[in-house]
Design brief:
mainly alpha, Arc Repressor Mutant, subunit A, HTH_TetR, Homeodomain-like_sf
């Protein structure tokens, strides 16, 4: 009687789920470490902090730039989801909530800031779907805010995105990079410029 083949302890689906969990753990760890320590941290240290082997990190992200880009795209997609949720509300000023969150994310995370300012890479080239999704959500909320009269009527979505990118330079110039309170204060001042004169 032929011997039975060995039983694989994990199905392909379980393996895929395990790999997905590892990838998400590496992304979350890298996001925290890039935000706290910048790009200087080695991939092997990210692996150690994530509780996975170096090979796991290198398998998903062959270079630090690849991991940096993945962190940025992941965070941008989270902002897209926030925009989607805000669009489902009836808040006419939801635009300011999303823009504040974008500025806070960029102030907290160098990868997000690079994506929004096209500093290290141009998100429109690296992840066109994520870039278009975020611009789309901002445009939707801008249209609603304009109709409600809570934003000046002569501003375009491209100008709004440029204002967000410029805000990071203002935050850095003021030395507020490491202070969430000061960076949020500067963001509010900058965003007030989008309001109609009667609402400032």
């Amino acid at each position: 009687m032929p011997a039975e083949p060995p039983v694989d302890p994990m199905t392909d689906r379980e393996l895929r789920a395990d790999a997905r969990r590892n990838r998400e753990q590496v992304l979350a760890t890298a996001q925290r470490l890039f935000a706290a320590q910048g790009l200087g941290i080695p991939l092997d240290e990210i692996a150690r902090r994530a509780g996975v082997g170096p090979g796991t990190v290198h398998r998903h992200f062959p270079t630090k730039q690849a991991l940096y880009l993945a962190v940025a795209i992941d965070q941008i997609r989270r902002l897209v989801d926030e925009g989607e949720a805000l669009a489902a509300t009836d808040d006419p000023a939801a635009l300011f909530t999303l823009l504040s969150r974008m500025m806070a994310s960029g102030a907290e995370n160098a990868a997000v800031k690079s994506a929004l300012t096209a500093a290290e890479f141009d998100l429109r080239d690296a992840a066109p779907d994520a870039a278009a999704g975020l611009t789309h959500q901002v445009a939707r909320l801008l249209d609603r805010a304009r109709q409600a009269g809570v934003v000046r009527d002569d501003v375009t979505v491209d100008e709004v995105m440029a204002i967000v990118a410029g805000a990071f330079a203002a935050i850095r110039h003021a030395g507020a990079d490491t202070s969430p309170e000061r960076s949020a204060h500067l963001a509010r001042i900058i965003l007030d410029g989008l309001r109609p004169p009667s609402r400032r």
